[in-house]
Amino acid sequence: MKIIELILDEENEDGGITAISLVENPAIEEDFIALKSDKKEIQLKEIDKEKRILMGAALVPNKPIYRKSEDEEYYIFFSKDTVRKASERFFINGNQSKSTLEHKIALEGLTVVESWITESEKDKSRHYGLDVPNGTWMVSLKVNNEEIWDSYVKTGKVKGFSIEAMMADKMERPKDKSVKDELSAQKLIDTIKKIFDEEKN
User: Fold this and answer.
1) Who has the most CB within 10 Å: 31, 82, 136, 152?
2) Which among 80, 160, 83, 81 has a CA at the least distance from the CA of 115?
3) How many structural domains compose the chain?
4) Residue 43: inside a domain
5) Residue 46 has pLDDT above 50, yes or no
6) Does a structural domain hold residue 147?
7) Mean pLDDT for the chain?
8) CB count, 10 Å around CB of 182?
9) Percent helix, strand, coil in the chain (nearest 5)?
């Protein structure tokens, strides 16, 4: 099965991540969590208006993501370096208030208010029970949209983030020596093959 690394096209200034979508089934398989109030208020059980902030992984490095087109099946992944560059380009291009619902409906009133790349086991994301690998792009999204919060977030109709992006690709990874972070190219291929075999059984 084909394995494709998606990379940031350095020559296309408008490329990269163009929006963050709220989805029921995130392609990266990492759920966000809804934060109702700050830690102190939770501990004291104070009643306050909801902050309406969603925190979660927007992009996970070296995560094999299954894709299927009309004529073929394949996997894509992003390196740590691409995750970092793409997260930076997202803000450089002013896309922090661009979001969609299930990649279909443009939304108003949603803004990324916090963004960081995880770097250690003591990362803030661990405090909220999110177990993501180092190099993951985490975001906190403010939801100032009553309908989305009440009809989709509170009801659990959306469970995570999914990116919308214009990326370039590197074809065929087996002989590529450029994957130097947590997974070598061969280990990534072995992982993908194992996942594919398990899905078939």
Assistant:
1) 136
2) 83
3) 1
4) no
5) no
6) yes
7) 79
8) 14
9) 25, 30, 45
Q: What is the pLDDT of residues 99-158, one digit of tens each?
A: 999 999 999 999 999 999 999 888 888 888 888 899 999 999 999 999 999 999 888 899
- pLDDT tens sequence across 161-197: 999 988 887 654 444 444 444 445 556 666 666 665 6
Query: Per residue in 91-116, is it b (16+ CB within 10 Å) or e — as a string?
Result: eeeebbebbbbeeeeebeebebeebe
Rounded Cα distance, 34 and 145, in Å: 14
In the beta sheet, which residues pair with residue 170?
5
Tokens of 33: 């969590």
Share of residues in the chain with pLDDT > 90 (%): 35
pTM of the model: 0.78
* Token pair recorded at residue 114: 């916090």
Residue 110, in any domain of the structure: yes
Residue 44 within a domain: no
**Segment (H or E) for 127:** helix 124-127
Q: In angstroms, rounded to a whole number, what is the distance separating the alpha carbons of residues 115 and 134? A: 14
